[in-house]
Amino acid sequence: MAGWLRQHRGLIPYLFLLPGVLWLLVFFVLPMLAMASVATQEGTLGTGFRQTFNVGVFPEVLDRYAPHFLRSLEYALVVTLLTIGIGFPMAYTIAFRGGRYKNVLLLLVIMPFFTSFVIRTISWKFILADQGFVLGTLKDAGIVDEGFRILATPAAVISGITYNFLPFFVLPMYVALERIDYRLVEAATDLYASRLQAFLRVTLPLSIPGLFAGSLLTFIPAAGDYINAELLGGTRDTQMIGNVVQTLYIVNRDYPHAAAVSLILMVALLVGVVAYRRVLRGQELTV
Amino acid sequence: MPDPRNDRTQIERAIARALAQGRISRRRFLRQAGKGGLITASALSLPAILAACGISPSSAGTGSAVSSASGAPVGGELSGELIFANWPLYIDQDEDTGESPTLDQFTEATGSTVDYQEAIQDNQEFFGTIQPQLEAGEPTGWDMIVMTDWMVGNMINLGYLEQIDVAASVPNFVANADDKYKNPSYDPNNLHSVPWASGYTGIAYNPELTGREITGFADLLDPEFEGRIGMFSEVRDSLSLALLHNGVEPKDATEDDVRAANEVLKEQAPLVRGYYGNEYAQELASGSLAVTMAWSGDVFQLQFDNPDLRFIIPEAGGILWIDNMCIPKGAAHPADALAMMDFVFQPEIAAQMAEYINFICPVPAAQDIIRQHAEEAESEEDRDYYTAVAESPLVFPTAEDLAKVHSYKVLSEEEEALWNELFQEVTQG
């Protein structure tokens, strides 16, 4: 085997890639094609779905669920801006001022991952319940109005998603900042740049790859999230596109429409990512 | 000064070395990865795949499945095994051992061991997991499942349930079950199912938060409770209560009736905090909901923690739903399933289960047995508990309450699609 490989060195990269390619083929490409196929079928579960190449389904669901698409993109955008606002200073501090506590701080960032996503979100429900220990206490003290609530509002959904995806931003951001050679910043200040100028013209441009990766890792799952909207929202005006897919697929068992909505979401995100990459001057998807 | 970046450079060097040994530069590696992807993709023709992926119809559409009407009732010898899917917290459980006394006694009486799994969270969802096998005419792996009346009706129509002969195989049902469970509209003559437990869909409220008595569905439409109203995500429950509010019997609802009822729900939606499944109970208990649609047995249990909570059947009418034991087509151990059906209709067993489940018990004779348990109870706490169960109209219903409740409509596939589509406008806009 080893001898054969030595003779056919050219095949080695393909062998290395084989598991990954097979994995993607079976769990990504085939389901995608199946989804594309289901989207253009017509029928019901009882009578069966027949392939009619009904491409009219795409404009139909786009029109029907436009508010949900827009709401998802809007929430995801706000979430991404919030994670940048919260996560950038966090990553910056850990990378440049963390000192010997760096590892501890990073561990704290990923600590929430040791508990299930759903459990964490449900615990927010208990903490923020209308008569729970936070709001109940504030209400008893007369600080907030009796009818005040946090749950079942867009703010609750956005906060929940921000909380859940913050580590996805902080980690790549940290990696990007941490690999910056601090001597460059020192050189800038030596050459009479103010601290702000040094940050804006040295640190920030060098951290763009982290910003790009981190914001995508936040924005994409945030746009498709439905757990937060389900558990922390639940009202009609907090339904995201993920909730629509879930209802169409599991409750209504309307597979074509569910598949069409999913495909549109995917294409929209793909187009968005490409555009975003252009804005950030052709950054690679790698950090 | 030790540079923390040293570790990483070492790793990077190691990777670079490993790659260099294979004489593959990183750039080339990536380029070849791209080629690999293209080769694999082009090997598969897109239209071929698109055409191949279809979803074949359920057997009812084609009529290919063995029709349940023509099949003979199941029976035969006990096999010594029973695989039973039920809903969570739906059988008695010993607090210390976690075992179910009913299941243990069943094994003792019949020699059949039970693989009992709390596998059902939702009618639709569970049906989705067994539907492909039933459609293909293969066994589902379950010998007995518990499904709500309308789903039993659906499954009968699809030919998915084994036929049973209650007179021969479930004599305790014939002898002990309340008459209202016999010959139900969703399963004439109980040819496929017998009840496990039942309950009301009605309204629960916390008087401290509402500040007044709640009497009917109109209270769920009151802007005063904005953001503190709970509704059910189950389309049949929510639309049925709205139909009754409009004075329409759900069983007889026409498309126009359903559209009118849906308009009521759509107008109500801005006031609603959420459309819930089982989790409404926590929201009610935590005080986030002041008034909500509710299932009777849940409220009975919540009342032990908060005696103020109340359950009512709306003035215009509520729903009586019935969960039923049934045998999916192709079950491996049907005789054991029949034995279990018969076993739980003994009044002593029914009483033992009702003491735990707290939904409506289908065996009226169980009431006196629970009263007796109250008299024999060793602690005051136990006595109070058994008395509460035996005397609760939510476990042993009064004729007055029963006069106010109605049944779900068994929906055709077109109707179900319509109901779902309409109701989605309520819950999701």
Question: For the record, what CATH class of chain A applies?
Answer: Mainly Alpha
CATH superfamily of the largest domain in chain B: Periplasmic binding protein-like II
- What is the succession of H and E elements of chain A? HHEEHHHHHHHHHHH
Uncertain segments of chain B: 1-53, 59-70
Q: Mind sketching the topology for me?
A:
The complex is a heterodimer of chains A (287) and B (429).
Chain A: H1 2-7, H2 12-39, E1 41-44, E2 48-51, H3 57-64, H4 66-97, H5 102-110, H6 117-128, H7 133-140, H8 154-178, H9 182-190, H10 195-224, H11 227-233, H12 241-251, H13 255-279
Antiparallel strand pairs in A: 1-2
Helix pairs in contact in A: 2-13, 3-13, 4-8, 4-10, 6-11, 8-10, 8-11, 9-10, 10-13, 12-13
Chain B: H1 6-21, H2 26-42, H3 46-52, H4 59-62, E1 81-85, H5 101-110, E2 113-117, H6 123-135, E3 144-148, H7 149-157, H8 166-169, H9 171-176, E4 193-205, H10 207-210, E5 229-232, H11 235-245, H12 255-268, E6 272-276, H13 280-285, E7 291-295, H14 296-305, E8 310-312, E9 318-326, H15 334-343, H16 347-357, H17 366-376, H18 380-391, H19 399-402, E10 405-406, H20 413-427
Parallel strand pairs in B: 1-2, 1-3, 5-6, 5-7, 9-10
Antiparallel strand pairs in B: 3-9, 4-7, 4-8, 4-9
Helix pairs in contact in B: 11-12, 12-20, 16-17, 17-18
